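Q: Here's a chain of 71 amino acids. Please give me its 3D structure as C-alpha cells.
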Amino acid sequence: MMNNNLNHLMKYLDSAGLVIAVIALVTGFMGMNVGGLPWKTSTNGFILTCIVALILATATGIYLKRKRFSD
C-alpha cells in the first residue's frame, strides 16, 4: 500500500516538475544576452515573456491532465 501511494506522489511531482521546466526553458531562452531575440527592445518584453511562459505551462498542464498522468 505504501508503494502505491509513493508511486502516485512521484507521478504528481514529475508532472509539477515538467510544468516548471517549461517555464524555466522559455524564460531561459528569453534571458540570453544575444541579438535577434523578440521583444529585446520592447518595454513590455518582460510581461510578454511571462505571458508566453504561462500559456505554455498551462497547455502542458492541460495535456498532462487529459492524459491522466498526474492522478
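Q: Can you summarize the key feature?
A: Residues 2-66 form one domain.
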